[in-house]
Amino acid sequence: MAEKKVGGAGLRGQVAGKTALSTVGKSGSGLTYRGYDVKDLAENCEFEEVAYLIFYGELPTKAQLADYKGVLKGMRGLPQALKEVLERIPADAHPMDVMRTGCSMLGNLEGEESFDEQQDRANRLLAAFPSIICYWYRFSHDGVRIETETDDDSIGGHFLHMLRDEKPNDLHEQVMNVSLILYAEHEFNASTFTARVCASTLSDLFSCITGAIGSLRGPLHGGANEAAMELIERFSSPDEAEKELLGMLERKEKIMGFGHAVYTESDPRNAIIKQWSEKLAADVGDDVLYPVSVRCEEVMWREKKLFCNADFFHASAYHFMGIPTKLFTPIFVMSRVTGWAAHVFEQRADNRIIRPSAEYVGPELRKVEPIAERG
Ligand SMILES: CC(=O)SCCNC(=O)CCNC(=O)[C@H](O)C(C)(C)COP(=O)(O)OP(=O)(O)OC[C@H]1O[C@@H](n2cnc3c(N)ncnc32)[C@H](O)[C@@H]1OP(=O)(O)O
Ligand SMILES: O=C([O-])CC(=O)C(=O)O
């Protein structure tokens, strides 16, 4: 892939502010959270440790982690008024719209009265998002009102438990853990920038996160994991995938789950989730979806020097764990709320309203014609 054009459309390459939270592509294709390589974190930490790191700046001690997990566990319950709202959202609603409404409604019930409450409210959202999506999903699809206050040790385990009515096995809990770590933070991506713009007006945390969810929903951003699933499940063999992809490229169609606004040669999260997808494929005895995904990766690199981003192998990994496709992007929210909230705190700590300028390309100054004379 050619060098990224700096400047021009999409503010590409422009420095739009400072952050101490992460670096993206700083040394080629690296990704760090507060100075730690994401690969190191994914190999050695639980997601809650990484959330703590992102919020508080340092990895927790054993005691701090136990405390933090206790705090989050205690925040899994949903207020009755929120449950009632979730029960009224139809089964065919988009789950990202459910997340957006859930976040906004919680803001009405437990709003942030002062910025002193920001960490508490961020923890509440981190703990409540899995409950929000699963409560709606199970009510609208299975007609049951689930208990959201589970005793699961991890956020990923809590999510899978509510979704399936049984505790997940170790492999699935571990993959959720890695996935949530990989998605937690990514500098000034579109949804985070949305949150920061909102924060720069001194708005409340729930508004910032609600806006960010809206930005993440699109297929050019978080929605790509769903779109990638819709693509790969169309193919019954690697050869068919290759033939169809070549046709799509010929027709200049976008292939979701490939390319990146910052990385130029690879997304460091891909190799990690790809390994787990391969393990899960072996676990479920898959001999189609994983080989199809690998062939897509080969074809895209060979033909266009486009590489898989974080979303592509997440699609097969989630699918092998039996997670419905439409819940893929909400999982991204369950994780990224850490990065979003931490960016809101950073923006608030050194704020100036974000207000760039536009290059005007409209008509010259003109006079209003009386309405009777317009024709
Ligand atoms: C977790 C995440 O949010 S990661 C991103 C998830 N999004 C996707 O997977 C959606 C598919 N990918 C894309 O649309 C893009 O690659 C983006 C949005 C991620 C990045 O956009 P940009 O920075 O504008 O892309 P970039 O400048 O690298 O594009 C270069 C060329 O490659 C093409 N290209 C980029 N990605 C793709 C793709 N996935 N499929 C086909 N062509 C592509 C572009 O159309 C462009 O061609 P052109 O010069 O003829 O117009
Ligand atoms: O950084 C980006 O533009 C998109 C991305 O990969 C992310 O938000 O994780």
**CATH architecture identity of the largest domain:** Orthogonal Bundle
CATH superfamily of the largest domain: Citrate Synthase, domain 1
Share of helix, binned = 55-70%
CATH class term of the largest domain: Mainly Alpha
Beta fraction of the residues?
under 5%
How are strands sequenced across the largest beta sheet?
A: 1-2-3
Ligand species? acetyl coenzyme *A, oxaloacetate ion
Determine the CATH topology of the largest domain.
Citrate Synthase, domain 1
What structural class results from the helix and strand content? mainly alpha
Count of DSSP H/I helices: 16
Largest sheet: 3 strands, antiparallel
Q: What is the 3D shape? A: globular
End-to-end Cα distance: 51 Å
Mean pLDDT: 96
Give your account of this protein's structure.
The protein is mainly α and 375 residues long. It folds into two domains: 22-219 and 324-349, Citrate Synthase, domain 1 (Orthogonal Bundle), CATH 1.10.580.10; 224-321, Cytochrome P450-Terp, domain 2 (Cytochrome p450-Terp, domain 2, Orthogonal Bundle). Helix content is 56%, strand content 2%. The protein is built from 16 helices and three strands. It has helices at 38-44, 47-56, 62-73, 80-87, 95-109, 118-142, 155-164, 170-183, 190-200, 205-216, 224-232, 238-250, 268-284, 289-304, 312-320, 328-349; strands spanning 22-24, 31-33, 36-37. Strands 1-2-3 form a three-stranded antiparallel sheet. Strand 2 and strand 3 form a beta hairpin. The longest helix has 25 residues, at 118-142. The protein is globular. The termini are far apart. The mean pLDDT is 96.
